[in-house]
Known about the structure:
By secondary structure, this protein is α/β, with parallel strands linked by helices. The protein folds into two domains: about 280 residues, Glycogen Phosphorylase B (Rossmann fold), CATH 3.40.50.2000; about 190 residues, Glycogen Phosphorylase B (Rossmann fold, 3-Layer(aba) Sandwich), CATH 3.40.50. It has 17 helices and 14 strands. Strands 1-4-3-2-5-6-7-8 form an eight-stranded mixed β-sheet, with helices on both faces. A six-stranded parallel β-sheet has the order 11-10-9-12-13-14, with helices on both faces. Helix 14 links the parallel strand 13 and strand 14. Helix 6 packs across helix 7. The N terminus is likely disordered. The protein binds uridine-5'-diphosphate.
Amino acid sequence: MEANGSSRCNGNGNGYYAAGATAAGELAPHVAMLVTPGMGHLIPLAELAKRLASRHGLTSTLLTFASTASATQRAFLASLPPAVASRALPPVDLSDLPAGSAIETRMSEECARSVPALTAVLADLRRTTRLVAFVADLFGADAFDAARAAGVRRRCLFFPTNLHVLTLMLHLPDLDVAQPGEFRDLPEPLRLPGCVPVPGPDVLMPLQDKSDPCYRWMVHHGAKYRDADAVLVNSFDAVEPGPAAVLRRPEPGRPAVFPVGPLIQSVHSKGGGAAECLEWLDRQPARSVVFVSFGSGGALPSEEMRELALGLEQSGQRFLWVVRSPSDGGAVNDNYYDAESKRDPFAYLPDGFVDRTRGVGMLVPSWAPQIRVLAHAATGGFLTHCGWNSVLESLAHGVPMVAWPLYAEQRQNAVMLAEGVGAAVRVPEAKGRAKIAAAVREVMEGVGRGAEVRRKVAELQKAAADGLRDGGNAAAALAEVVGTWMRGEDQGDE
Ligand code: UDP
């Protein structure tokens, strides 16, 4: 088992203490966090751990699965402060799963099969640290069994996506009974308490084929979430006021829900091309560049990649595009476990495109320092796959979005952003170059819906920052949860 981060050393002067220690040399309260695969899950949990350390003096251990030991992940874990340690769980055999099993199935199976090893790790952490709570993320609810078996007092769910998706997951066991057909065939949009109505085909992708084992897993997780003492959600009230109002009200049989976001990465992730693209941005006028990226794993089919290239060219806007090899012959989330493109992504661009857009466009293979790009004064828009971390990062930096969802909950997020709060313009389906160019221009030039989107995003940026300040909604929600962990320790309740 790999371990990163020593267990008892002094604070490093940044308000952080190494896993296990306080300034007085006493054991600090400690939290174990299980990270299901994907940088999009790891990054916000690591931010939660950092915030628990800097604001509340808690130390943490991030528990990762063997399947995710990519170079990107290792570099990220190594960059965390000493208060945030990590351990990789031993590998589990998944060779019996059919080829082509959904990613959510693989993650859920890996978690369920890791319960015995996790029980041993948690028992060990109880011996060596002052363990006050266990936190699992969205595909890890089976791990509550390990926490219970190891005698960990508090079990929380960390939901790295939003309150709309949480509402759906919590209702899923009932919807499963009440609504036997496929979501995509629903005659009317799906209406859930407080939520923006979602057309059937835009509902969470892993729910779209009820004959796939992945669907059953999701129903299972939705039921299992009710085992948590509390749910911490990486969202904030202003971006989804409807479900925030509903979920903030206590409800018998449902854990208390705490919006604690936006928790976004504060250090830039390392990767090829970082310095080069930032230097390029330094030479561009303020708010003149649209950043184009599909998250840590997303890739387009080659035909859409071609239309996107021609659409960007036609928009006449400057662009910085993280280019991945196309997803032909595989899934749009083909790169999920490893963000590096396997083939030369530039080989798939239209003939002459690179020459024609030289000076206007900057292409980066596979990975860019997204957080620094979004924070850069030259960035004026973000064409995004609507992965929730990307959305939060965009809002936190006041960057209006063009929505181009691919998989997971991204289509739902696009509905909520474009039809609900109004923070994005969505590229209409059958994505051709003209529609792409029009959506990009609306956001970048503030024409059509673009003006209102830009105004709304500025408002949300302020609300997000206010919530995280002392006394803000999100800060108060996290303090309340930490308070229950500490009280649980005083009372010794199991
Ligand atoms: N990211 C990055 N550079 C890239 C692509 C992604 O730094 O080139 C980061 C991005 O800032 C975000 C995370 O990876 O924090 C992606 O998470 P998101 O939820 O947006 O999408 P997912 O990767 O889970 O689909």
